Amino acid sequence: MTALASPSPVPSPSGAPDDEARTDRAEGPLRVLLVEPESEQSHQLVLSLSGHDVDITVCVDGAEALLRVGLLRPDTLLTSSDPSEVDLETLVRVTRRATDIPILIGVGPGDSQRAVRALAAGATACVSRPYRIPELSVLLRGSLPGTEGLPENSATSHAALRSGDLELDALGHRLFVDGQPVDLALREFGIMDFLLRNSGRVVSREELWTEVWHKPLPPVNNTIAVHIRRLRHKLGDSEASPRFIHTVRGIGYRLDTGNGG
Questions:
Q1: Burial level of 194, CB count in 10 A (0-12/13-18/19+)?
Q2: pLDDT digit string (tens) for 23-67?
Q3: Number of alpha carbons in the 13 Å side-chain half-sphere of residue 108
Q4: What phi and psi values does residue 121 have, to the nearest 5 degrees?
Q5: Where are the beta strands (DSSP E) in 152-261?
Q6: Ramachandran assignment for 245, one of left (phi > 0), alpha (psi -120 to 50 degrees), beta (any other)
Q7: Average confidence (pLDDT) over 162-171
Q8: What is the Cα–Cα distance from 105 to 131, expressed in whole angstroms?
Q9: Given a cut of 60, is residue 240 above it in pLDDT?
């Protein structure tokens, strides 16, 4: 991927280290710098988060975001996976050189490779886009250092899911099998996240579709079966003798992380 030439790091206005500045920040709204090219999307997000004690500054492209990072010193940067003017990798890398604030990437279908490169460049975590406000609000709050008292069902409590030989790092968007990383597409990751959170329980195809695709399951659709087949291949699993993902005929699937049985 050809990246734009990185400009010089944006200086901190006060000269104080960013981690120290954020630790000593005054109480008040969480300052979020949002990179969102779609005006309707940014408008809705500002309205939806207004009741969550979040102050959003909107940038329409990555170049503006790099300028405002140094001027505004936000608590968190939230960006779409395909900002204009400056590509995502460069935006993350240059921001990370200037500050250690959390960088969250909004990802949707087809964004898997960009998300992987952004995480490698220094992004903190990925979050599903279109954004779900309760999840996003908790994740934004949980990204601050020293955050305490978050509800047990918050996004941060699911930062790592472990069951048997599987470990899913939800915030880092990674899955490990027997300690080895497995590269998953976004839908595959969503399926594994849901199965792990319901490990040992049979989940219906309807549940899985609603959770991962966020819409009703069509009457005739083999998309889930295709994704499960790809997942099994990546996990070293098989339908005939499953170690992890078991098919329950006529109902759905069950994740078994015990002895494989």
A1: middle
A2: 445 457 889 999 988 888 888 888 888 777 888 999 999 999 999
A3: 9
A4: -80, -10
A5: 160-163, 166-169, 174-177, 180-182, 202-204, 245-248, 252-255
A6: beta
A7: 78
A8: 11
A9: yes
